[in-house]
Automatic annotation (TrEMBL):
<keyword id="KW-0808">Transferase</keyword>
<dbReference type="InterPro" id="IPR029044">
    <property type="entry name" value="Nucleotide-diphossugar_trans"/>
</dbReference>
<dbReference type="Pfam" id="PF00535">
    <property type="entry name" value="Glycos_transf_2"/>
</dbReference>
<dbReference type="GO" id="GO:0047267">
    <property type="term" value="F:undecaprenyl-phosphate mannosyltransferase activity"/>
</dbReference>
<dbReference type="InterPro" id="IPR050256">
    <property type="entry name" value="Glycosyltransferase_2"/>
</dbReference>
<keyword id="KW-0328">Glycosyltransferase</keyword>
<protein>
    <submittedName>
        <fullName>Undecaprenyl-phosphate mannosyltransferase</fullName>
        <ecNumber>2.4.1.54</ecNumber>
    </submittedName>
</protein>
<feature type="domain" description="Glycosyltransferase 2-like">
    <location>
        <begin position="7"/>
        <end position="164"/>
    </location>
</feature>
<dbReference type="InterPro" id="IPR001173">
    <property type="entry name" value="Glyco_trans_2-like"/>
</dbReference>
Length: 248
């Protein structure tokens, strides 16, 4: 299968070179989507002439960078598009495993909670709490069996991507993705990947470093995605009442 590895990047001059060096043995074609970096990220790419580059003139957000990656992969006829974060938390040697699993699935999603690895690091408590709550909610209202909503290490078939109509620019884009995947009855498989937090204090930007604000932002995106799905494809999803931390 013709595969494209895509890496969304925003101000990652400290990690990008290392990530690309480790990825090259496992990916014949690599696309970096630079989301308006203002540091030396683009200078790093000069040392990797085989790596393709798509640039956003301004910072638009994680979801917008992934949409550009998906569009590139579809337009250039790749069978599978793999997404991997640029901060060094994903293991490139697992790329072949995700690609192999995509032979029998529309979306293959890494999960940091399916198995235990020697290199695992503790998840920040607020991130783990929010991931649990949102994952429970998605599973309840969409009939999924996810264990990790937000892992950015994924493989998508082109046929799956061509069914999606994603609009969310920010970090909540995966919620819109899961809603549409469920509506289109896409086959989803999770693959265990290590849980590595090199910088647990990494900022989400603006107000989203506040966990309550971030949870509300995710909830709004989920509510909106389900409302849009009902109108567009009539899949009849029912959103269960919001889960509260006290109920866990």
């Amino acid at each position: 299968m013709r595969t494209l590895l895509t890496i969304p990047v925003y101000n990652e001059e400290g990690q990008l070179g290392h990530v690309l060096e480790r990825s090259l043995p496992y990916a014949e074609d690599i696309l970096v989507v630079d989301d308006g970096s203002t540091d030396g990220t683009l200078d790093i790419l000069k040392d990797f002439p085989s790596v393709k580059l798509h640039q956003h003139a301004q910072n638009r957000g994680y979801g917008a960078a992934l949409r550009s990656a998906f569009a590139y992969g579809c337009e250039h006829g790749y069978d599978v598009v793999v997404t991997m974060d640029s901060d060094g938390q994903h293991e490139p040697d697992l790329i072949p495993r995700l690609v192999k699993a995509s032979k029998d699935a529309d979306i293959v999603s890494g999960s940091r909670y399916l198995a235990t690895f020697d290199e695992d690091t503790p998840a920040p408590k607020d991130r783990r709490r929010i991931n649990l709550l949102i994952t429970d909610q998605l599973n309840a209202c969409l009939g999924l069996q996810l264990t990790d909503t937000f892992c950015g290490f994924k493989a998508y078939t082109r046929s799956a991507l061509e069914k999606l109509h994603l609009t969310e620019d920010g970090y909540s884009m995966p919620l819109e993705l899961w809603v549409q995947a469920a509506c289109h009855k896409l086959t989803i498989v999770e693959v265990a990947v290590p849980r590595v937090y090199l910088d647990p204090s990494r900022s989400f930007g603006e107000t989203l470093d506040d966990s309550d604000a971030r949870m509300e932002y995710y909830q709004r995106t989920l509510d909106r995605a389900i409302a849009v799905a009902r109108r567009r494809v009539g899949c009849g999803l029912e959103l269960r009442p919001r889960l509260q931390e006290a109920n866990r």
